[in-house]
Write a structure and sequence with these properties.
Largest sheet: 8 strands, mixed
Helix content: 25-40%
Shape: globular
CATH superfamily of the largest domain: Alkaline Phosphatase, subunit A
Low-confidence stretches: 1-37
Number of strands: 38
Mean pLDDT: 91
Strand order of the largest sheet: 4-38-27-3-26-11-12-25
Radius of gyration: 25 Å
Distance between the termini: 40 Å
Oligomer: single chain
Length: 701
């Protein structure tokens, strides 16, 4: 299938962009609109020429391919030991069939073994020192401010003020922080078509010969990585903002009844077309029906709210200026009307029918999927783990949300399998990762967050999830041809997260970090209370420790070179084998200096010391957000009870395939060169991995 042969209904040109930390930049200038129209006009004029060039190139594409199509099913976080257990019990027949046809080795992961890092190595075939992704969260070394590690959103450089209006004269920039080239771009150079669905760290989308739907780092309309809303009457049990730490954002809006109905609003993006930058809002009313249900009136729609059930996706439109609208989608969940009204709203996500920013390549692909399948989740981290950790949602509603999203992805991949007869298809399914994060406490009887006497449907939730993933594999494989190559893989495994290690508390106890005079414990978020004039090292994010180095950090005190290296070596020696005396256990398997972990042009952007924890441990919630707590070790009592941010040797992924591979020491960086060789393309020089296909030399050995 060539893209030129597909027809998409794209609707009107969209005039706004949204990004993490940048709010919404509304593009309403004549120059931008004229430019878009001109580009479309030129595209129509050159379409016949481009079609001829692509046709000529296509004749030579895949001339040396070993298979007509490679299909990769990513099951994020599938754990080998649980997979082994369920295979032995006969619960995973489709994965077992692949194992019998080809193989089932472990798949080595990255350092650290977290999704943005591991999937970036999958995409590029390179170690993190070459692709520049080391964590979810980084910091600006100049001012120590936190920043998303995967993407940069910058406001338009040129603006014009007309009274109370601010008119942008250029587009905001959206720049990926991932470096090196993904293997689908290498395939594109050789004329090979690819369909890339929801692979993490593909935002903004790549430009290549194929289609792509972006995933991790795609923001919501607020510009965050996912902000849910709880509407609650006074007296409701709502999360205390000072007490919650973790993986997402939340907002609680107080709602009261007036004349038999509840009145409130959906909170939208900042209106950057106004000088005062007011918040866009969309009013709604909710009228109880007397049977536990209610009727909402929102944006001209009448929506039935059933108790303890999700609505379908709801379209919402925020009006920023005449002719300028920002469109989103959300789902609602009526928790209860009595004794106190509580209504949950998902993050308001980008509407794939009319995206306010590019979330796919080509831009029309997101809309094509929406026309074909209906509205679907577009947020990078769409499964709302925060609301479950905060106690706003219950386990069953979280599972329902996760499986609803999983089914959306499955239908997308099946459509790609139908429409892409040659080349490469890949889709990553996030449900295994999200469900294991939140449900691990139900299979771990010693977990601090495990409730007493949990019901069977929750203790069996993990097993059911593995069976559900096996069914997905079966449905996809059933649509493939006999000579298609199939790879089913996970980027890492999973382990319990019982105890948190507060690295900043450890640094403080050992004299490497000093708080400002009068600072309370726990200290403020995002390194707010640190006395930089007396601090040698600090921690933020999930992966490790940074040296407060001169000529790099804004207020650095440790000299670059020998002094920095001596400090790194000293801390590594102390942290490796760090014991949790209260549990009589080793918490840190190994503290790894950056120079040993990575090589490449971007290695210097990594933390100076990467902490590889033992099973059961992870960085504490406080330290991950740059706080310093009272003690080094704390119980993890959150629903987020499983994790994989430990030493990479302890948490490999899985690899199932119908191919006979030389995969005894397979690593995630080996997938890209293997796919390239299968499709007859020579791997480029930046790739660190090796092809897993047998050669004459490996066969003889």
């Amino acid at each position: 299938m060539m893209l030129d042969s597909m027809v998409f209904d794209i609707g009107p040109i969209t005039l706004s962009y949204v990004g993490p930390g940048a709010g919404v930049a509304l593009i309403g200038s004549f120059l931008v609109v004229a430019g878009a129209i001109f580009s479309a006009f030129i595209g129509l004029l050159t379409w016949p020429i481009r079609r001829i060039i692509r046709s000529i190139r296509g004749r030579h594409a895949m001339a040396h391919a070993k298979v007509p199509r490679v299909v990769i099913i990513g099951l994020d976080g599938l754990e080998p030991t649980l997979t082994d257990q369920f295979l032995e019990q006969g619960l995973l027949p489709n994965l077992a069939a692949l194992r019998e046809r080809g193989g089932y080795p472990r798949l080595g992961t990255t350092c650290p073994p977290i999704s943005p890092v591991a999937w970036s190595s999958f995409s590029t075939g390179a170690n993190p020192g070459k692709h520049n992704i080391f964590d979810f969260l980084g910091r600006n070394p100049v001012n120590y401010d936190p920043q998303i590690a995967t993407v940069r959103i910058r406001e338009p450089r040129r603006k014009m003020k007309l009274g109370t209006w601010v008119i942008p004269l250029s587009k905001p920039s959206i720049t990926a922080e991932r470096r090196s080239r993904p293997f689908w771009s290498v395939l594109s150079d050789a004329g090979v078509f690819s369909a890339v669905l929801r692979v993490p760290i593909t935002f903004p989308p790549d430009r290549f010969n194929g289609v792509q739907l972006a995933a991790m780092s795609v923001p919501d309309l607020l510009g965050s990585q996912g902000t849910y809303t709880l509407y609650a009457e006074p007296g409701s049990d709502v999360p205390d903002e000072d007490q919650v730490e973790g993986e997402g954002d939340r907002q609680c809006i107080e709602i009261t009844q007036n004349n038999g109905r509840y009145v409130s609003y959906l909170r939208g993006p900042i209106n950057s077309l106004r000088a005062e930058q007011p918040e866009l809002r969309l009013p709604f009313t909710v009228t109880p029906s007397g049977d536990g249900s209610a009727v909402m009136r929102l944006d001209g729609q009448k929506i039935k709210l059933q108790p303890m059930k999700f609505t379908d996706w709801i379209n919402v439109t925020f009006k920023a200026a005449p002719g300028v609208k920002v469109r989103g989608i959300c789902r609602l969940y009526l928790k209860q009307i009595a004794p106190r009204f509580e209504l949950y709203c998902t993050a308001i996500q980008i509407d794939p029918n009319k995206p306010v920013m590019p979330i796919s390549h080509p831009k029309v692909y997101a809309t094509y999927l929406a026309k074909l399948l209906g509205p679907y989740a577009t947020l990078g981290l769409a499964e709302d783990t925060s609301s479950l950790s905060d106690g706003v949602m219950d386990d069953q509603s979280f599972l329902q949300q996760s499986y609803d999203i999983h089914e959306e992805r499955e239908r997308m991949m099946l459509d790609a399998v139908l429409r892409v007869p040659r080349g490469m298809i890949t889709c990553v399914f996030d449900a295994p990762d999200r469900i294991q994060h939140m449900m691990w406490r139900y299979i771990d009887e010693s977990h601090p967050a495990r409730p007493p006497d949990p019901p069977a449907e929750l203790t069996d939730a993990m097993r059911h999830m593995y069976q559900r993933m096996d069914e997905t594999v079966g449905r996809i494989v059933a649509e493939l041809r006999e000579n298609d190559a199939v790879i089913v893989m996970s980027d890492h495994g999973f382990k319990p997260f019982r105890r948190g290690v507060d690295l900043n508390a450890w640094l403080r106890e050992n004299g490497y970090l000093t708080l400002k005079e009068g600072a309370e414990l726990p200290s403020g978020r995002y390194l707010a209370d640190i006395d930089w004039s007396r601090t040698k090292a600090y921690a933020i994010g999930l992966t490790g420790i940074y040296v407060n180095q001169t000529d790099r950090e804004g207020q650095g005190i440790v000299a670059e070179g020998d002094e920095t290296q001596a400090l790194i070596d000293e801390m590594a020696a102390k942290l490796t084998g760090l014991r949790d005396d209260d549990k009589d256990a080793v918490a840190v398997h190994e503290a790894i200096p950056r120079a040993r972990a990575y090589h490449g042009p971007y290695a210097e952007n990594a933390p100076d010391l990467i902490i590889g924890y033992r099973e059961g441990y992870r960085v504490s919630w406080a330290a991950a957000t740059g706080r310093c707590g009272e003690t080094v070790f704390t119980d993890n009592t959150k629903a987020w009870s499983g994790d994989h941010c430990i030493h990479p040797d302890l948490v490999p992924g899985v690899l199932f395939t119908n191919l006979n591979l030389n995969a005894e020491t397979a690593n995630i960086i080996d997938v890209a060169p293997t796919v390239l060789e299968l499709l007859g393309v020579t791997p480029p020089g930046h790739i660190d991995g090796k092809s897993l296909l047998w050669t004459e030399e490996t066969s003889s050995n």
